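<amino_acid_chain>
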Amino acid sequence: MDPTIGAVLRHPPAMLKAVQWLHRHGLLRRLGGANIDAWDSYRAITMPCLLLHGALSDVLTADIVERMQAGKPDLEVVTVPERGHVPLLDEPAALAAIDRFLLRVRSA
């Protein structure tokens, strides 16, 4: 895990700031053939999804999780206590959520 990932997101490099500005003003939607708006990509997901949210994440904030749920009402969200951005997937809450999710998807 990169402990400085939050800092990079809060203070992006100059090139990324320029791309974000162009995008915000409707001047750039794709870069090198790839969609640069993560929300556009997220809205295109049609399969069931499980979000394991580390409660202490400084990257995936509660506001972002709410926006994700609003954009995909069937999104299953489980907050993993005492974890940062990336839960280790050995936590009881994470393991139980993964088991429930896989059972639900398998039976659908």
